[in-house]
Amino acid sequence: MKTEKAGEERKSVAEFPAAPLTLEGFAVLHQMFRVRRASWRALEHSERSRIVAEAARLFDELGRREDGETALFSALGHKSDLIVVHFRRSLDELNQAELALAALGLGDYLEQTTSYLSVIEIGLYEATVALYERLAKEGVAARSPEFQSAVVAELAQQRSKIASRLYPRIPQRRYLCFYPMDKKRDGADNWYRLPIAERRRLMHEHGLVGRRYAGEVTQIISGSIGFDDWEWGVDLFADDPLVFKKLVYEMRFDEASAAYAKFGTFHVGLRIESGNLVALLAT
Q: Distance between CA atoms of 166 and 159, rounded to whole angstroms?
């Protein structure tokens, strides 16, 4: 009888949703722009000054918002000249920020090379597996009212613990490194075929690497499944850019990355204040 009960519990766990519970916070938009320098240089100096002053006022206002702000970064390399990062409470507010930027006189001299839409996400693998194991022992059926009630309670409890991580300020660090990434679905290397307990183990080990860099780098993970072409976006903020190389390199040796991670295009920039737009646009 005991064996039969254990079998029923395993079946019940297997019937629970495969995706871990997640908490979502700020909606995030990255915009990468190239300056149309030939057209910009053709303007009279007084007109350039007027346009820069107008843009600086807007970026200063957006950068001082208390509930989701905007930050500017001077991009390194050929991919863009300017990286604009927006944190907002909703996609509607992101759209307002995007339209406000486009309405600037400066907008006529910026060519958007790419963008990335996502939402700050905290995956709850540890809490999810612990909850599912408890519910299985209690004989709660997947997707039953009791199951749904327990999930809602767990999410509320977790949200109260980590609310500040869901709605952070954009870190005041000198350098930004942003890149998108996926989990593999290549033959045997298929992240989405792994049992949730195995994925929990791999993500726990993956997280240990990041925690070794606490204090040196601030990492913000955002989910983009259903929003953009990759599955997650990763923002790293640091005062020493070499930490990006060291952290990403070390992480590629842990099993979650070595077997299951795909990385997109990397973008690196230096934070600038709105008053420094003149230097960015200097001819």
A: 8
Alpha helices in the chain (DSSP H): 2-15, 37-41, 45-63, 91-103, 125-137, 145-166, 196-211, 242-251, 255-260, 277-280
Active-site entry in 179, 213, 249, 260:
179
Residue type, 231: E
- Exposed e or buried b for every residue in 98-118, given b needs 16+ CB within 10 A? beebeebebeebbebbeebbb
Please name the residue that has the structure tokens 């307990």. Answer: 197
| Cβ–Cβ under 8 Å, residues 231 and 224 | yes
- What mean pLDDT do residues 83-90 have? 98
Q: Is the model's pLDDT at 1 over the cut of 50?
A: no
181 strand-pairing partners:
232, 263
Longest dimension (CA), the chain: 87
Confidence of residue 12 (pLDDT cuts 50, 70, 90): low
Give residue 13's pLDDT band: very low, low, confident or very high (50, 70, 90).
low
CA pair distance 70, 55, nearest whole angstrom:
13
Look up tokens 């890149």; give the residue: 179
Note if 249 is an active site residue.
no
Neighbouring-strand partners of residue 183: 261
Q: Which of 88, 83, 82, 98 is nearest to 65 (CA)?
A: 88
Tokens 């003149």 identify what position? 278
Full-model pTM: 0.93
The CB-side HSE value for 210 (13 A sphere, CA atoms) comes to: 16
Asked whether the predicted pLDDT for residue 58 surpasses 60, the reply is yes
Looking at the chain, the whole-number percentage of residues with pLDDT higher than 90 is: 89
